[in-house]
Amino acid sequence: MKVNGIPTRSIRSVDGGRAVEIIDQTQLPYRVEKRVLSDWRDCVEAISTMRVRGAPLIGVTGAWGVALAAQEHPENAKLISAAETIANARPTAVNLSWAVQRMLAALLPRDPSLRAETAVKLAEEITQEDVLTCRAIGEAGVPVIAELYRKLRRPVNILTHCNAGWLATVDYGTALAPIYAAFERGMPVHVWVDETRPRNQGLLTAWELKEHGVPHTIIADNAGGQLMQQGDVDLVIVGADRITRRGDVANKIGTYLKALAAYDNEIPFYAAAPASTIDMRLSDGKREIPIENRSPNELLVVTGVNAEGRTSSVQIAPLDESVANPAFDVTHNRFVTGIITERGIVKPTELASVFKDLIRD
What we know:
CATH superfamily of the largest domain: Translation initiation factor eif-2b, domain 2
Strand content: 15-25%
Order of helices and strands: EEEEEHHHHHEHEHEHEEEHEEHHEEEEEH
Number of strands: 18
Oligomer: single chain
Strand order of the largest sheet: 8-7-6-9-12-17-18
Helix content: 25-40%
CATH architecture of the largest domain: 3-Layer(aba) Sandwich
C-alpha cells in the first residue's frame, strides 16, 4: 500500500537480512516513524510493546527474530532458547508460534554454520508469502461486497473492528483486503471504523483508509449496534488472531459484541484470516484459546496530540485504580457467516475439511 503516495510495507529486511525495518505503530496515526530491529531481542520488544501488531505481522516479525538469532547464536541450545522467548512474546496470536516453529523445523536439521543463510532466505519467503496470501484473501472477499452492491445499488456500508489492514500484515491486510480490492474495482463502499479502545487501533484503520482514499467514518466502539438497528450497516468484516478448527474466532476485545449485534440484526459477519491463523489443535475457542491480559495503563492513560501539535499522554484515572484489560474475546462459530481465507470463503464448520493439511498428529 502507499504512505504519502509512496509504496510501503509494514516490515522489510535491510542490510542483506542482518536487520529489519518496521513502521513503529505506537507512533501512528500522528506520525510515521521507521525503526530498525538489528537484534532478535528487538523483535521481542517490538512484538510485546505493539510496535508491530496484527497476527500475520507478528508472525513475520517472529520469523525475522529467529533469523537474527540464528545469525548471532546458530548452535542448538541458544537458538532454541531465543526462539522460545520470541514465541512467548504475545500469547493469543497463533501466527507467532507458527512462524517460529516453521523456522526451527528448517534450521535445526542443518549444520549450524549454514543456518544463518537458510534463516534469512526462509524469513524472506514467509514475508513474501504473507503479501500473496493477503491479496488472495482480498480476491476471495470481493464477491461478498459485489453481491451486496448489486442488490442494494448504493454504497455498501461495512463495519470493521480493530485494524486488520496492511499495517497488521506485510501488505494489503486481511479484513481490509476485500474492501481495498472492491474499491479499486470501482465499487462504492463506506467503512464504519470502530475506535477500538483501549489501544485505538481503529485510528490506524482510518489512517490507512484515508491514505487509500476509501470513504470512512470513525465511530465509538459502542455505536455499532445502534447503526445496525438503524439499517446503516450491510456487512461486518473483522480480522482474527486465532481460529479453532470448528471456526470459533478470537479477535480484539469487543468483536464478540459486534457479532451478537450482527446476528440479532441478520447482518453477515465475516472473519478474514490466512491459514496460519487457524489452530487445528483447538476446538472450543472459549475454553482453549489463551487470552492475553495487558497493562492497566492502556486503560488509564491515553495518547493524543496537544494544543502545540505535539504527541503527549494524559492520565484519565488514578493509576492505582483496579483495572481488568483482556485484549481479546472469542466469538462462537454460530455467529460467524464465513471465514474469508486465501482458499476462498469457508463455513466455520468446514474449516477442518478445507484445511485438513494443517492437521498434525
